[in-house]
Specification:
Layout (H helix, E strand, L loop, with lengths): L1 H6 L2 E2 L9 H15 L13 H13 L3 E5 L2 H16 L3 E3 L5 H4 L4 H4 L4 E3 L10 H5 L7 E5 L12 H13 L3 E6 L6 H4 L3 H5 L4 E5 L10 E5 L1 H13 L8 H13 L4 H21 L6 E3 L7 E6 L3 H15 L1 E2 L4 E2 L8 E6 L9 H15 L1
Parallel strand pairs: 1-11, 3-4, 3-5, 5-6, 6-7
Antiparallel strand pairs: 2-8, 7-8, 9-10, 10-13, 12-13
């Protein structure tokens, strides 16, 4: 599949995983001088360019301090572990579809000794009432913005403010899983620093949306940052040198971050065109979720087995040079139904509604 996506002439988005090593190195070298002085020494154990990325990210988020981590999984474990020690309560309230519950092999409990509870099981973030009505205390409320596995969904700004206030009334801290926080600003109609100001701590990723090689930042108060650095060392995250990944993060902040609003806007165009094209094609049932995307990513649900849809997508890529959909999954879906994730980035900005309709028709012809 990866080879077919790489050679496709038309795609809605490309991922860094499609790059060849030489292309990736060339891109990194060509962009380095725009974001950092290449004559500066390489980093050693988090100084130099790493400290500069921390400073720039903290400034973007309007928070006092930031700490760079090699992975978001490590950053969030450390954040929530630190808050548990400070609040005296090791219970974390979060959504059952949140990243730590689904994609981290129970690391919060197995590695960090924390316990989780769920204010809601609805496919959205919890409401203020649900947080207020939790039948047991919790030390931290973690909100994933956007909630990826539910369809990259977000609350309204007013709902977000209310749910944060509800947690505060329960004397809990609030942590934002903001791996994709970068593209939330258009939905909320607020700048990043105003969004981040609602939380006690925020984690952001550099390879999701920004196209970095890897890495994440945990931002918050200076005292939290100091403690997080100690735990980062204990967790094995104090790496000798990290400048290639950090350079890619700085390039992402410089180049991709300003473009994200245009991706979010065009995702709405693509989603509407998909809805119309699937309806016009006579598909028995389909769903674009959410119908109007909250970010530049959304889900598409179709009433076919994943294997059939993956085969159709692969042959379309190979035979026409057009990649519309990528991997389809049936796990967690009703029988006979599959879901895929769609992202719109710079490559997708040229797609018109007519282009989407033509690609849908070609795709469905291969489904049979």
């Amino acid at each position: 599949m990866l080879a077919a996506w790489r050679t496709s002439e038309r795609v809605l988005w490309r991922t860094s995983a499609e790059l060849r090593v030489g292309d990736g190195l060339a891109a990194l070298a060509s962009g380095a001088a725009d974001v950092y002085d290449p004559d500066e020494p390489v980093d050693l154990y988090g100084d130099g360019i790493v400290a500069e990325l921390e400073r720039r990210t903290a400034a973007l988020l309007g928070l006092p301090a930031a700490v760079y981590f090699p992975t978001g999984t490590m950053a969030q474990q450390v954040a929530l572990r630190c808050w548990a020690g400070r609040t005296g309560n090791a219970t974390v309230a979060l959504h059952p579809q949140a990243h730590p519950e689904v994609h981290e092999r129970s690391a919060l409990s197995v590695v960090s000794g924390l316990r989780t509870m769920h204010p809601t099981h609805r496919p959205r973030l919890p409401t203020a009432d649900e947080v207020a009505e939790c039948d047991e205390p919790f030390g931290a409320l973690m909100l994933e913005l956007p909630l990826r596995d539910a369809g990259f969904v977000l609350p309204t700004w007013e709902e977000l403010v209310d749910v944060v206030e509800a947690a505060r009334e329960r004397e809990a801290v609030v942590h934002f899983d903001g791996a994709r926080l970068w593209e939330c600003a258009p939905h909320f109609g607020r700048p990043l620093d105003e969004i981040a100001a609602l939380a006690d701590s925020v984690y952001v990723s550099f390879y999701k949306s920004l196209g970095g090689l890897a890495g994440a930042v945990l931002a918050g108060p200076e005292s939290l940052a100091d403690e997080a650095r100690a735990w980062r060392h204990r967790y094995g995250g104090r790496l000798f040198q990290q400048y290639p990944a950090v350079l890619s993060a700085l390039i992402g902040l410089e180049r991709e971050l300003p473009r994200l609003p245009s991706y979010v806007a065009h995702a709405k165009v693509v989603a509407a065109a998909l809805t119309d094209a699937l309806r016009a094609a006579g598909v028995p049932w389909s769903r674009v979720n959410p119908p109007v995307p909250h970010t530049h990513q959304f889900q598409v649900w179709l009433p076919y087995e994943a294997d059939a849809l993956n085969e159709a997508g692969l042959t379309q890529s190979e035979e026409t040079g057009v990649t519309l959909f990528r991997r389809w999954f049936s796990e967690g879906c009703p029988p006979g139904v599959s879901v895929t994730e769609v992202t719109v980035s710079s490559e997708g900005l040229t797609w018109t509604a007519a282009d989407v309709k033509e690609a849908v028709e070609e795709f469905l012809r291969r489904v049979g």
